[in-house]
């Protein structure tokens, strides 16, 4: 791994590091059973903080490319055990935002409805924590990560691992859409809108109302798309 070089400082850094490591796994440079370099080694190789490296490792784990073992590190897993992984070149094409939102719309809506049926107290507590981090954070990157966490918790609350895998596979793209949304409008104007939408989602899920949770997610997704200048096709 000594041939890694510091990455360019644009885009979402954890996603860029995860993409670099993921590409090496896909090309066979890192094989099943291989141990990834230590957190410290990756920090030095990429010239980033430990927090960035930890987020990149978490993304690779969500994508099913690696597993982490307590006290031993992170290891590449067998291809048959892997989860969903998107093609990086295709996902970064100009049409990616439109396609991403169109794909997310029905899946996120159904996830919200299922979460209302299956959520537990821990899911609600973690959703509240994510909302608090979004509302009280001055660090833009931390706020965006909290936004992503909020959606991931909803996926986990469905009790269906494929929803979690889907969000894990596109987490960096989701962050890109969040960044795009916040770049287009002033934080002072957009933050209250997003907070209101998220709290409506949390309330519906917390009250165990699947129909209202689905409706709240539908409104949120359509508004999110509108904030980045997209119009989704909505059926029914």
UniProtKB/TrEMBL annotation:
SUPFAM superfamilies: GntR ligand-binding domain-like, Winged helix' DNA-binding domain. Keywords: DNA-binding, Transcription, Transcription regulation. Residues 11-79 form the HTH gntR-type domain. Pfam families: FCD (PF07729), GntR (PF00392). GO terms for molecular function: DNA binding; DNA-binding transcription factor activity. This is FadR family transcriptional regulator.
């Amino acid at each position: 791994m000594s041939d890694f070089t510091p990455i360019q400082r644009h885009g979402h850094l954890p996603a860029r590091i995860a993409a670099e490591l993921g590409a090496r796994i896909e090309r066979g440079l890192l094989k099943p059973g291989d141990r990834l370099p230590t957190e410290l080694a990756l920090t030095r190789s990429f010239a980033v903080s430990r927090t960035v490296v930890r987020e990149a490792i978490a993304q690779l784990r969500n994508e099913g490319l690696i597993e982490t073992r307590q006290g031993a590190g992170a290891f590449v897993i067998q291809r048959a055990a892997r989860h969903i992984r998107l093609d990086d070149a295709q996902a970064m094409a100009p049409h990616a935002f439109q396609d991403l939102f169109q794909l997310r719309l029905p899946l996120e809506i159904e996830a919200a409805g299922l979460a209302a049926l299956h959520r537990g107290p821990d899911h609600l507590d973690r959703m509240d924590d994510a909302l608090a981090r979004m509302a009280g954070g001055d660090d833009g990157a931390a706020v965006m990560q909290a936004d992503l966490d909020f959606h991931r918790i909803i996926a986990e609350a469905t009790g269906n691992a494929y929803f979690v895998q889907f969000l894990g596979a596109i987490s960096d793209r989701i962050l890109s859409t969040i960044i795009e949304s916040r770049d287009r409008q002033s934080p002072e104007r957009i933050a209250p809108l997003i907070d209101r939408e998220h709290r409506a989602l949390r309330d519906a899920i917390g009250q165990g109302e699947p129909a209202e949770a689905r409706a709240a997610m539908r409104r949120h997704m359509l508004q999110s798309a509108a904030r980045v200048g997209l119009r989704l096709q909505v059926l029914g």
